[in-house]
Amino acid sequence: MARLKVAVLISGRGSNLQALIQAAAAPNFPTEVIHVISSFSSADGLTYAIKAGIPATVIDHRDHTDRSSFESALNLCLHTAGAELVCLAGFIRLLTAEFIAAWPDKILNIHPSLLPAFKGLHTHKRVLESGVRFTGCTVHFVRSGTDDGPIIAQAVVPVLPEDTIDLLAARVLEAEHHLYPLALSLVATGRARVREDVVEISGNLWPTSFPQTLFNPGLI
Ligand code: GAR
């Protein structure tokens, strides 16, 4: 089976990169990580690429005079590596509409909230302050707005009374590590497709034991 060639773009810790590398270790997983691009040379996540023997390139926007030169460097690197799909995994640079248009429905992003709620930074702090009882994570196709675009998959995580930002972030991150490989495999196998800017999923992926309703607090 020819596996789809994925490039992962990171800026920091790289735990979602690691989840995608680990998922691809299964022989029947439909993608392989063929290149990692980091916007910082100091990004811890680069060690996951090195350990896995995956080529990595640092493209730091501070080495470029403007956004267009930075994105040209990104594009060249992606094409030279033979990338067919791009996964943003904690990549902090916003991509322009021109760059995104050059990769139509070929760029995925993960965000630690149930989009479209809580886009942007300091997600878990804002979730806790808002008093919502559920949060989660989302993998979506990238459009030009921050954390915007057709939703591929989401995971729901409860917000618990004793939560701190760190506790909640860790619970959501664990879900992220399962969700990103799932969403990526749906896209790579053609089961998730954009139609009128909404993602349609084909195939029966809803087990009969799927909970129809979640309560938080639980029903007494
Ligand atoms: C993840 O929590 C991801 O959802 C978030 O950055 C973190 C990167 O962690 N992305 C965003 O907030 C996008 N707006 P990682 O480097 O360990 O994968």
Write the layout of secondary structure elements.
Layout: E1 4-10, H1 15-24, E2 31-38, H2 46-52, E3 56-58, H3 67-81, E4 85-88, H4 97-101, E5 107-111, H5 123-130, E6 134-141, E7 151-158, H6 165-188, E8 192-195, E9 198-201
Parallel strand pairs: 1-2, 1-4, 2-3, 4-5
Antiparallel strand pairs: 5-6, 6-7, 8-9
Helix pairs in contact: 1-6
3D structure, described in words:
With 220 residues, the chain is an alpha/beta fold. It folds into two domains: 1-103, 3-Layer(aba) Sandwich (Rossmann fold), CATH 3.40.50; 109-203, Rossmann fold (3-Layer(aba) Sandwich). Helix content is 31%, strand content 23%. It has six helices and nine strands. The strands form two sheets. A seven-stranded mixed sheet has the order 3-2-1-4-5-6-7, with helices on both faces. The chain has a two-stranded antiparallel ribbon with strand order 8-9. The N and C termini lie far apart (50 Å). The relative contact order is 0.14. The mean pLDDT is 97. The structure holds glycinamide ribonucleotide. Glycinamide ribonucleotide is lined by residues 10, 12-16, 45, 89-90, 110-112, 147, 173, 176. Glycinamide ribonucleotide binds next to helix 1, strand 5 and helix 6.
